[in-house]
What does this fold into?
Amino acid sequence: MNVHVARERHWSTQKERGSLFLMRLTALSVRLFGRRLLAPVLYLIVLYFFVSARSARRNIRQYQTYLADWSDKPELKPTLGKVFGQFIAFADNLLDRLDVWRGRLRFEQVQLVDPSGIRPRLLRSQHGGRGEILVVTHLGNPDVCRAMAELGEQVPLNVLVHNRHVAQFNRLLGEAGDRSMRLIQVSELDTAMMMDLSQRVERGEWLAIAGDRVPLHDGRRVTVNFLGYVAAFPQGPWLLAGLLRCPVNLLCCLKVDGRYRIHLDPFLDVAQWERSRRDAVIQQWVQRYADHLAGQCLMAPQQWFNFYAYWQPREKEANDAT
Amino acid sequence: MNALQQEIAQLIIDTLNLEDVTVADIPPDQPLFGEGLGLDSVDALELALALQKRYDIRIASDSKDARQHFTTVATLAAFVQAQQEACKN
It folds into this structure.
C-alpha cells in the first residue's frame, strides 16, 4: 500500500474530478428532476465513482482502518460496505450542498452547538469590531456554515480557497443561484494578499479557511500525528492568524441522525508567537487541531471527504513518537 | 541614516520583537533577509502589515516588486517616501 500512496497525485492536481463533475451533473439534475427523483441517479453515479476510482477506495479504507485502531473501536474497521457507505455519504453531502446553495436548508433546520457564543460574535462584527478566523474542515459539510451565517450581504464572511477552480466554482454557485458567498483564492500568502486580508479583519470581516488540506505550491506545511500516523497539515491558517493576531475558532458541520449539527469551538483567544519559537508554537497548535479533528471524526466516522492519500507514506514513525 | 530610515529600523525591531538589536545594528544598506539581519518570509509579511498600519501604504499584488522594496532599510524608506508623496498628489 505504501508504494501506491507515495505515488499518489496531490489532491489539488486532480481537477476536483469527482467533486466538480458530480456537482455540475447534480446541479443540473436537481433542477430537472427534484431531489427525491435524483437520489437514485446520484447513487448510480457514485457507484461508478466507487468502482472506477481505485485509489479513492484505498484511501478511504486506510482512513477507516486508522480511525478504528486509534479509537480502539473494532466495529469501525473497514468492510466493502463501509467503504461504499462513505461514498454514499459523499453523494448525500453533494445533494445537501445544493440545498444550501439554493437556500433550501434554513438555519432553523440546523442545530448549533456553540457554547461560547461565536455565532453571535460573527453577527455582531458587522457593526464594528475586528474579524476572526474560522478554521473549517472537509469532515462533514463546510457549506452549511453558510446556513449558520444566514449569508445575506450583511454577514461579512470570506471563504479562502487554495485551488485554481475558483472561477469554475463561482460559475457553478451562480448557476445554483448563490451570489452572496465571497470566495478568495489564496495560492500563496504574499504581501498584497496579507494587506488585503488584514484590512478585511480590521473592518470586522471574518475569514474562513480550511485547516486540513495542504496546498500544492506552498511548502509551508507541518507534520503531526493524526489518528496515530504522520500527516501533513497546512501552516497557512495559523500563520495567517498569528500575523493578523486574531482569535481562531474551529467550525465543523456534521450530519448526525439525518440532521446537521454545527460545532463551533473557540481555539485560540489571540494567535501569537515569540519569533524564535514560531515553528514550535505552530506545530503545537496544529497537533491540538489534529487531535480535535480526530475526536470529531468519531462523531461522524463516514463523513471524512478527503479522498486523496492523506497520510505520509512512511507510516510507522508516528507510533514511535507517541 | 536619515530620520525615516531610523524610524523604520526601530519599527522592524519593535514589530519582530528583536531582542538585543538596536537601530545602530541595522545599517540602511544591510540586507534584511537571509545573510544580513536573517529575517524570513513570515517576518516580511509581519513587517508589511506593520508598515501598512503605520504609513498607510499599499503594495500591489506583484510580489517581485514587493520583494525589491523589502531588501534593505534604505529601499523600504525610499518606498514609504514614494508612497507618501504619491498620496499627497
Q: What stands out?
A: The beta strands of chain A are 111-113, 133-140, 157-161, 182-185, 206-210, 221-226, 229-234, 248-256, 259-268. The first helix of chain A runs from residue 2 to 7. Chain A touches chain B at residues 188-195, 198, 239, 243-244, 274-275, 278 (CB under 8 Å).
